[in-house]
Amino acid sequence: MKYVSTLETERLLIRPITLDDVEEFYAMDSQPEVHLYLNRSPLKSSEEAKDYILSLLQQYEAYGTGRVAVIEKATNQFIGWTGFKFIDEPMNDRVNFLDFGYRYRKESWGKGYATEAALACIAFYYENMTHIPLHAITHVDNQGSRNVLEKAGFKITDTFKFTIWDMDCYWYDRVEDAK
Questions:
Q1: Per-residue confidence (pLDDT) for residue 135, from 0 to 100
Q2: Percentage of the residues of the chain whose pLDDT score is greater than 70
Q3: pLDDT in tens, 115-145
Q4: Under a CB-based contact definition with an 8 Å cutoff, are residues 14 and 120 in contact?
């Protein structure tokens, strides 16, 4: 079943990422500020962006879901990505779940876009995907990301070491699901 859909909010178009997004994806993911809490290096080339997008397209094909582009309708600009990634390898002693996440160009921070897109994605999840467990993670120091997750109905249920990036993270469950 395919869960990659196009969603629309007042200010945003949320749609599958394509290879046509390579340059704008690179512009976003090459910003050092975007990687502050990711313990990774910003992308260094459009080719790296293309490889990342190709891995997203594989996720669409394999699991019917994946991260999706967030387009600001007023400018038709790619401002970031959001959505679900199917996790099929152990993370915090769990496997086979959806990780909800997002990443945005620094110029779009503080405008409510991440929360607006998150609420649309969560509504889509509850209409179509509740048979797959949903979680989220964030670096313990990333207050901005924590705010978005909490506004989208997530709550911290655990703290763990994300060994891939050697960083301390909060584990989130949706409030309704954590009861």
A1: 98
A2: 98
A3: 999 999 999 999 999 999 999 999 999 999 9
A4: yes
Strands (E), 17-153: 67-72, 77-87, 97-104, 134-139
- Taking alpha carbons only, the member of 50, 83, 88, 51 closest to residue 67 is 83
For residue 172, what is the enclosing H or E element? strand 167-174
At residue 89, the 3 state secondary structure works out as: coil
Both structure tokens of 92: 């915090």
CB distance 156 to 171 below 8 Å: yes
Taking the CA atoms of 173, 122, 152 and 31 in sequence, report the sign of the dihedral they define.
positive
The three-point CA angle 19-136-162 to 5° equals 95
Token pair of 161, please? Answer: 């070491």
Q: Is 35 exposed, middle or buried (0-12, 13-18, 19+ CB in 10 A)?
A: middle
Question: Which is it for strands 97-104 and 134-139: parallel, antiparallel or unpaired?
Answer: parallel
pLDDT single digits (tens) 12-26: 999 999 999 999 999
Q: Which amino acid is at 11?
A: R
Name the burial class of residue 65, with classes exposed (0-12), middle (13-18) and buried (19+) by CB atoms within 10 angstroms of its CB: buried
Q: Which neighbouring-strand residues pair with 75?
A: none
Q: What are the structural domains of the chain? A: 7-135 (3.40.630.30)
